[in-house]
Amino acid sequence: MEVLKDIKELEGSERNALLADFERRKKARELILPTDDLAVRARLREIEEPVALFGEDKGKRRDRLRNLLSNLSEERLAQLEECFKEISHSEIKVTEEKEKTGTFYFRGSPLLKEARLYIASYSLPRARQKLILERKHQANQNSKEEAILHQEEQKLLKNYSNYCSQVGGERAISYSTFSPDSSSVATSDWTGLCKLWKVPSCDLLRTLRGHKNRVCCIKFHPTSTIQQSPSALNLVSSSFDGEVLLWNLEKETPIGSLTGHPLRVSRVDFHPSGRYLGTTCFDSSWRFWDIEKQVELVHQTGHSKEVYDICFQKDGALVITSGLDSMCRLWDLRTGRCIMVLQGHVKPVMAVDFHPNGHVVLTGSDDHTLKLWELRQRQCSYTIPGHTNTVSCVKFEPNHGRYFVSSSYDLSVKIWSNKNWLHLKTLEAHTCKILSCDIARDNKFVVSSSFDRTFKLWAEDKEL
């Protein structure tokens, strides 16, 4: 009675608006809505409203639909009811499958089928051999010889210091990596040049000219300087303008290119067989190439933001990509499916690397942490708050993975034991943030490159 009395005291326009609001609320309560979220989305789509809003859960979405329908006329509601009845169960089922999938897979070519069959035949024998070696390692893990070996190696790593420093260009040195025989270092810089340097003297061997923009990354072919002919493909580099160039060890100009990237290609990596190449692009996709035919086999989406780093498993079966969406995705190259999503970092994942055993992954992030992931258990096994700024690069020791290194924007390169994740040594000499690091296959040197235009070699100090 008091409410009715208050309404009568209001002016005409206000009273009419309030009564209309009461009628709308009554109408909203009487509406019969589906409880299935997919059906709610279908009705929102039918009335040309967004099917989802940021931060909106299923309950809030249903309430939003109720409020929108309560504002419509009786005629419009009757028309919509007829439209809603025409939505078949099969259409809802298709929508449900799309929601569950999350990742869109492109139709492949006959060349892709050939590549998948080759990768399966390449990886399965190596996976079998890897298991045999793993069992032997487990049997010797607690032996005195193994413990002594670890102690000696850690003692050597604790003695690492700056062995050599070289100005590599006029702008930031974006990437540095050792050749497979550890005799040289390849660097890329923001002037658009790639250079080869002799180890350990750091004398310039060759300058590779061809990029028109800042170079992001450069990688050696897996058999370069070991079996690969100097006149064949030995190096691949990528740049900010999406250009990917192919190089040999005889010419200073590229011998080929991979075209099709519309934006920055931040990282490239060779498949262990040397026949294929993976590239990551800032269009939120990564690509898989047949470099012998220079043909794109896969253009794969899945990340919600830019894809930054990529690394192939050593037996060639899997590849992992990291993105600025704070996630890593693990892909099976034999089927093309995303088989695992690594979620745990709270900021962009800038670096990723496979352990030689193939079932441990190391990641570094803008959240200043490193994470070790056990793929067989499908979880993060350990988190290392190792740096005070962005972790730019991580690398396992390439032969046995007994230790790993990480570089950061906090001006340091750190060496870690992989047995108990102890911090062994901090290498400091750069004056600007460090962009990359690598370990020589002969385990004699570590290299790092920085915004200070230099790359540095780190090795055991014999005098200590």
Task: Compose a concise summary of this entry.
The protein has 464 residues and is of the alpha+beta class.
Features:
single chain, 2 domains, four-stranded antiparallel beta sheet, 8 helices, 28 strands
Tell me the radius of gyration.
Answer: 29 Å
The unreliable regions are none
By DSSP, the count of extended strands is 28
Number of helices: 8
Structural class: alpha+beta
| pLDDT averaged over residues | 88
Commentary on this structure:
- The chain contains eight helices and 28 strands.
- It is an alpha+beta fold and 464 residues long.
- It has two domains: 31-101, no CATH class; 112-460, YVTN repeat-like/Quinoprotein amine dehydrogenase (Methylamine Dehydrogenase, Chain H).
- A four-stranded antiparallel sheet has the order 1-28-27-26. A four-stranded antiparallel sheet has the order 2-3-4-5, with no helix packed on it. A four-stranded antiparallel sheet has the order 6-7-8-9, with no helix packed on it.
- The radius of gyration is 29 Å and the shape is elongated.
- The N and C termini lie far apart (93 Å).
